[in-house]
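>> Question from a student workshop board

For tomorrow's exercise we were told to take the sequence and the ligand below, predict the bound structure, and bring the output to class. My setup keeps failing. Could a helper post the expected result so I can at least see what it should look like? The ligand is MGD.
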Amino acid sequence: MTNSIGEIRDADFLFVIGSNTSEAHPVIAMEMKRAIHKGATLVVADPRRIFMATMAEKHLQIKPGSDVWLLNSMAHAIIEEDLIDHDFVAQHTEGFEDVKQAVHSYSPEAAEEHTGIAPEDLRWVARKYATTERAAIFYTLGITEHSHGTDNVYALANLVLMTGHLGKPSSGMNPLRGQNNVQGANDAGATPVFYPGYQKVVDSDVRKKYEASWGVSLSPEPGLNLNQMMKTLGQDIKGMFILGEDIVVSEPNVSLVEEGLNKLDFLAIQEPFLNETSRFADVIFPSSVFAEKDGVFTNSERRVQRVRKAVEPPGEARADWKILIDLAAALGSPWQLDSPEAIYSEMVRDTPKFAGISHARLEDTAEGELTGIQWPCETPEDPGTVYLHKGGVLRGKGLFRPVEFRPSEELPDEEYSLVLSTGRTLYHYNAATQTRRESGLDAKQGEAFIQIHPQDARKRDLEHNDFVRVSTRRGEVICRAIVSAQVRRGSIWMPLHFAEARANLLTNDAGDAVTQTAEYKVCAAEVVKVNAPQDAAQAPFPGSYYRPATKH
Ligand SMILES: Nc1nc2c(c(=O)[nH]1)N[C@H]1C(S)=C(S)[C@@H](COP(=O)(O)OP(=O)(O)OC[C@H]3O[C@@H](n4cnc5c(=O)[nH]c(N)nc54)[C@H](O)[C@@H]3O)O[C@H]1N2
Ligand SMILES: Nc1nc2c(c(=O)[nH]1)N[C@H]1C(S)=C(S)[C@@H](COP(=O)(O)OP(=O)(O)OC[C@H]3O[C@@H](n4cnc5c(=O)[nH]c(N)nc54)[C@H](O)[C@@H]3O)O[C@H]1N2
Ligand SMILES: [Mo]
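>> Workshop helper replied:
Here is what the output should look like for this input. Compare the format with yours to find the bug.
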C-alpha cells in the first residue's frame, strides 16, 4: 500500500476494484465502513454483488476481464472534462501524452458493450474520483489474477497519476496483501527477481555487493517464477523443496502439476500439517505455526511487527528458521545465526530501505503507540514512513504507461458457455489446511459449491442445492450448486478452498505477460446436473464428495 490502514477512515472517496474486502480483508473493510459512516462515498467495481457493493453509492458490476476498458474510459472521461491535476502531472510525472493518445478511443459510450456499465455511471465515478481531494484506490486479485493483470495495474496507476492522488494522506494506490507476512517474504527477497529490499537480481552492482557480503558467487539471471516452475516439474526440475505451500490445491490446472510431481526424483516439504501436497512427499519436516515461534511479520502497510512465541510447538515440530539452519549445516554451510534477531539484522545489513529497523527498536514501543515500524526506514533515528511519495514520486517521476485492452485467454463458446471465476470466502483460508481442522468453521461452511445465476440454473434444469458437474477443457469436479443472483448472468463462481472439489482442476494456467500470475479469474466452463454422489455420506468431510490427489 502507498498509504496506511489508519488513513482509510479519513478518506472521502473509496474506489474498491476486484477486492472482496469484507470477506478477505475484514479489518480493512472495517476501516472502510468507518469512512462511509463519516460520509465517504464508496464505489465498488466487481462482477459479483459482494457485501461491500451493498454499502456502495455505485456498484459497477462489470463483465469479468474488462477492467482495462473500464479504467481507460475513466481516464478518457477525466481528460475530456479536464479534471486533471496539471501541476502534479507537470512536476512529478512523465509520459502523460502517450496515455492521453491511448485512451482517446476508449469513450465511456464505447466501453458499455465491453464492460456492461452505463456511460453515465462511468462518467459519474470518474468525475467523483478526480474531484475528491482524499480519494483512495484499493485493489486485489480481481485486478491481478488475469493474463492482462499488469495492464490492469498500469491502467489504475494512470488514473492515480493524472489526478495527483499520490503522496498525500488518505489517498494513493493500495493493493491489499493476502497471506500473513507475504509482504515480509517479498521484502526479504523471496522472489526470483529481487534480493532483499527490491534490489534487482539483474543489477550487477547489487550482485557484487551480495557476492562480497555472502562470500558466494551469484547468478546474474533471475530464477524461475512459480508458474514457470510448475510447467517444468519433472522435466528440468527433478527435485523440489516446498515450504508452506499446498500446490496441489492452489496452483492452476493442477492435474498437470500432479503429473509433474509424480515425475520428480525427490520432494521434501516443510509443513505444520499433512496437507494435500504431502501425499507426494519423500520427506516432511514438521514445522511450527505463527504462535509457536519468534520473529517479525510485515503487514500490507509495510509495518514490521514483532511476533513472540506464545506456546511451544507440539511433538517434533520446530521453528522454520531452525529447520533451515540445520539443513544448511548438513549441506556443509554452518551458518552462524542463532536467533530470529540475528537473521533479521543480517537481512537489513545490505538493504537501505530497512536498515534502520532492528528487533531492539521494535521492542520498545511506548504505551498507547501502534507497534512496529513502517519502511522505508533507513537509519536508527528514522521514524519510518506512513505514506509513500510524500513531496515527490520516489523514482523521480511517476511513469504513465499506456495500455490496450486484451481479452482473457479463454472465452466462453458453445461447448463451455459460462465464465468461471474463483476466489475465497470468509470462513476458509486458501488451501484450508488450517480452517478445515476447526469444527466451527466447517459447521459454517462444510462443502464445496458453485454459485450460478437463477436464469442460467433454470436453463440447465437446476434447483438450489442440486449437485452438478463443473467442467472445463482441463478437468471436472462435482459439487453443490448455489443458485444466486450474486453472480452475473453467464458467470459462475467457486471457492478454491475445497480439496474434494478443487477449483484448480478447472482453472487456466495461462499467466500474465510480466509476472506470470495465473488467470484464476476467467476461464470457460460448463455445468450439468448430476445425482448426489453415493459416497457423499461417508466422505471425510461431512456431505462432501472426496477425491484426493494421489501419488502413483
Ligand atoms: N477469509 C479469507 N481471507 C483471505 C483469504 C482466504 O482464503 N480467506 N486469502 C488471503 C489471500 S492469500 C489473498 S491474496 C486475499 C485476496 O483477496 P481478494 O482479492 O479480495 O479475494 P478474491 O476472492 O480472490 O476476490 C477478489 C474479487 O475480485 C472479483 N473479480 C473477479 N474477477 C474480476 C474482474 O475481472 N474484475 C474485477 N474488477 N473484479 C473481479 C471477485 O468477484 C472478488 O470479489 O485474501 C486474503 N484473505
Ligand atoms: N483457483 C484459485 N487458486 C488460487 C487463488 C485464487 O484466487 N483462485 N489464489 C492464489 C493465491 S492469491 C494464493 S496466496 C495461493 C495460496 O496458496 P497456498 O500458499 O498453497 O495456500 P495456504 O493455505 O495459504 O498455505 C500454504 C501452506 O502453508 C502452511 N503453513 C501455514 N503456516 C506455516 C508456517 O508458519 N510455516 C510453514 N512452513 N508452513 C506454514 C499451511 O499449512 C499450508 O499447507 O493460492 C492461489 N490459488
Ligand atoms: Mo494470495
